[in-house]
Amino acid sequence: MWIDRDLASRVRHSAQTRPVVVVTGGRQTGKTSLLRRLFPRHAFVSLDLPTEAAQAEHDPAAFLARYRGPVVIDEVQYAPGLFRHLKADIDAHRTRHGQFLLTGSQKFTLMRGVSESLAGRADIVELETLALSEIQSAHRRMSVASAMVRGGFPELHANPEIDLAAYYNSYIATYLERDVRSLTHVVSLRDFERFLRACALRSANLLNKADLARDIGISPSTANQWLSVLEASGQIVMLEPWFSNRTKSIVKSPKLYIADSGLLCALLNIRTEAALRQSPSIGAVWETFVFAQIRHREQIAGRAKSVFFWRDRTREVDFVTEAGGRLELFEAKWTEVPGPGDIVNLAFVRDIVGKKIVRRAAVVCRTPHEFPITSDVAAINAVSLAP
Questions:
Q1: What is the pLDDT of residues 133-149, one digit of tens each?
Q2: I need a surface site. Which of 308, 317, 375, 382 has the fewest CB within 10 A?
Q3: How many Cβ atoms sit within 10 Å of the Cβ of residue 24?
Q4: Which domain holds residue 222?
């Protein structure tokens, strides 16, 4: 079963106007499947295969002689030496568009090669797991709670019979063995898995690297390195605080989020909707899920770096989006009927930054229908965040 992706039109347009398109994102987010679906006439080669990666790295001229564009090159970060030769080929045929479609699941390694050799030649598209709007386009009766627990990995929705626990156990094991080993010298994968689970316990919270390192028994520098690995491989997202000239958020630390709510639930041993509803972490899981929907909406709108949070010593607004000098303020609350107590922080921040620049203030909750809480603040559901 194929599930349409909202980013498909952007990828098509990029391939019609740029010589290189780079699709990045975590493992199993559907990068390869999307490109093969959109461009069935392109040749295809995966550098997951050691023999192909070795030739691409050590004899790139011969490799490109075999795979002249148009071609999809999967997991291109395994051959960083290929990028310089791609540049030469592209510059020799600059008017040809969509010749090289590249994917990679290790963002830092991939982007280093792109920035050094393909700057100005490549369009970069980041593909995350399925958003709620994409899931419900394929499974209209799927509840929001079920989507939260199941997560957004496309394979889980293309084949609903897949055992959820087995899938995530395999995903985590494969991630540790492949991405972690290739990105850094981790002495103990067991410690790294404990670190990943400790991050899950802190999803939707301010990042305190010293506390995180102490809980695992590693140095702060190691914790910092491991956080970079998780971010590079698309497993976590850091949300930065919002600042303005008029008011400054006192907090400077980012908030940490697991990128996908299904992976978060798996790491917290939440396997069913019933377990989710009884979990003390339900608020953090909901906030993590809402953040993913907001990121998706902003990415489709071409504003991938426009989401922040606001916090001072006593108050916090979960999400602030900025576009054209106007702001949207969102609080994530696991309730069906938010009340006046749920909008106190929204009203406080709106008054500080100025009502004229706040386009919308809303509580994102489980209400089936949008309704006004006050004249200035509405209750909306996660479906309302669709692009």
A1: 999 998 988 999 999 99
A2: 375
A3: 23
A4: 138-233+262-281
Mark whether 64 and 97 lie in a shared domain. yes
Q: Are residues 159 and 189 in the same domain?
A: yes
Q: Report if residue 101 sits inside a domain.
A: yes
**Any domain includes 335:** no
pLDDT digits (tens, 9 = 90+) for 360-372: 999 999 999 999 9
Whether the CB-CB separation of 11 and 34 falls below 8 Å is answered with: yes
CATH of the domain at 24: 3.40.50.300
Q: Indicate whether 218 and 101 sit together in one domain.
A: no
Put simply, whether the predicted model's pTM sits higher than 0.90 gets the answer yes
Over residues 239-258, mean pLDDT: 82
Residue-averaged pLDDT of the chain: 91
Whether residue 184 sits in one domain with residue 149:
yes
- Residue 245 is predicted with a pLDDT of 59
Q: Name the domain count of the chain.
A: 2
| Helical residues (DSSP H) of the chain, grouped into ranges | 8-17, 31-38, 50-58, 60-66, 82-92, 107-117, 132-138, 144-150, 154-158, 164-175, 181-183, 189-201, 209-216, 220-232, 261-267, 273-278, 282-300, 344-353
pLDDT at 49: 93
Sheet holding 316-323, edge to edge: 307-311, 316-323, 326-332, 358-365, 377-381, 371-372
**Same domain flag for 87 and 198:** no
Structure confidence by residue, pLDDT tens digits, 261-283: 999 999 999 999 999 999 999 99
Q: Is 62 exposed, middle or buried (0-12, 13-18, 19+ CB in 10 A)?
A: exposed
